[in-house]
Amino acid sequence: xxxxxxxxxxxxxxxxxxxxxxxxxxxxxxxxxxxxxxxxxxxxxxxxxxxxxxxxxxxxxxxxxxxxxxxxxxxxxxxxxxxxxxxxxxxxxxxxxxxxxxxxxxxxxxxxxxxxxxxxxxxxxxxxxxxxxxxxxxxxxxxxxxxxxxxxxxxxxxxxxxxxxxxxxxxxxxxxxxxxxxxxxxxxxxxxxxxxxxxxxxxxxxxxxxxxxxxxxxxxxxxxxxxxxxxxxxxxxxxxxxxxxxxxxxxxxxxxxxxxxxxxxxxxxxxxxxxxxxxxxxxxxxxxxxxxxxxxxxxxxxxxx
Length: 305
What we know:
Elements: H1 3-13, E1 17-20, H2 28-37, E2 42-46, H3 47-51, H4 57-67, E3 70-78, H5 85-105, E4 109-113, H6 124-138, E5 144-148, H7 159-169, E6 174-179, H8 180-186, E7 201-206, H9 217-226, H10 237-250, E8 256-258, H11 270-288
Parallel strand pairs: 1-2, 1-8, 2-3, 3-4, 4-5, 5-6, 6-7, 7-8
């Protein structure tokens, strides 16, 4: 098999896996090019990638579209739910702008994470009402809202809590984001995923880290924001394997994005970091899920029996 054919096969095998710009340093165009060169076909973008572009938002959008990478999703709307009065109105305005940026990028998913605000109510009906409102704002733009429970969230800090309010909100474009880091940080059992509709999981974010326990909310935050590594590089490979296999068994066929905040990676050459991500994607696709593409022209992955 030629080198080009091997590379093409690998690209097809990892088609469901993508990088997040937060793992890479440098200009947006350089990060997009590194991700594409590593064989990925999708990218997770953050608002700062767009508004921080030196030539402005239009230039950033043009760069993303020119890259040929599909946008996995757009992040992140914080502290939206559970507020009242002028605080709620303020967050609605912010949400509208995030939705418009997501639409401009061609992103079909906007990530929203559970509130950490001391001003937010923990009342489930209030949270569900606010998430329903957010989803309805996004609906005319063809955007789905993926709600993620932060492990240091004030009222909701496990995916089981997030699923409870998503179910209660009962909106066609409101679903879950599952982040392996937060699942491991809280020790939430994977068996609870059996109560989640896999069609309502809009995004799965994967990362590992280098120690077993996260004893305090502050340690969870510090590790999450500075010390994550790619799947298979840390001490939670077995847990990551179990999570990915569980999701696959339940019927999840959506995207996996590597959300790897790592200060060291921000100081390293882009091709080196992107290659580490590629190695991780190949481990998951071919080693864990045992997916392979037997024919060069086949674009969709399938589980090998």
